[in-house]
């Protein structure tokens, strides 16, 4: 038995550094592929990233139920982590493909094909209050994304996401989903999701979008493997 060190960041915080979706980050050589899903499940985050080659930005992403070829908050969080640890790569490599990285001020963004990621059941609700009052237990299967305009002229949206199919009753901030919503609406967005996370998107027709935000470090973890 050995002790595994896990670094943790909060991805898509608000401008004051609050909220954000926790992400576990593990050096890939510490956990063999056969054990990565189990470790991700034990950590309990919606996703955990394994950094296989920091110099090239090569990553693998796992949930409690299996590997993902692409996800938004893990790639944004990993890009920040790599830069913080002296590897300011401008491209990440995940099973889905190459992910360009950009940094503008305190925002870090990734660019992806909007056809990547999970398939969502979309529900536009009349008001933000309707989104906030939704009962997560109502959504017991699949992937459901609820959203409403806060202010349509400024393209500001209130959203929540439920992904019990991945063992995530509610996801605090879902980068790949908001890239898909960006493509549906064909415009740049500010999405306020979950308890208050902020996700910024940019539409790059015909099939791509960026998603980005602020990342803050959180308390690291250790546990026996």
Q: What are the main properties of this structure?
A:
single chain, 225 residues, alpha+beta, Diaminopimelate Epimerase, Chain A, domain 1, 15-stranded mixed β-sheet, globular
Oligomer state equals single chain
CATH class of the largest domain: Alpha Beta
Percent range for helical residues? Answer: 10-25%
Unreliable runs: none
Q: How many H/I helical runs?
A: 4
CATH superfamily of the largest domain: Diaminopimelate Epimerase, Chain A, domain 1
* Helix/strand structural class: alpha+beta
Whole-number average pLDDT? 96
Assign the CATH architecture of the largest domain: Roll
Beta-strand content bin: over 45%
Helix and strand run: EEHEEEHEEEEHEEEHEEE
Number of strands: 15
Supply the number of structural domains: 2
The geometry reads as globular
Computed CA radius of gyration, to the nearest angstrom: 16 Å
The biggest beta sheet is recorded as: 15 strands, mixed
What's the end-to-end separation, in Å? 6 Å
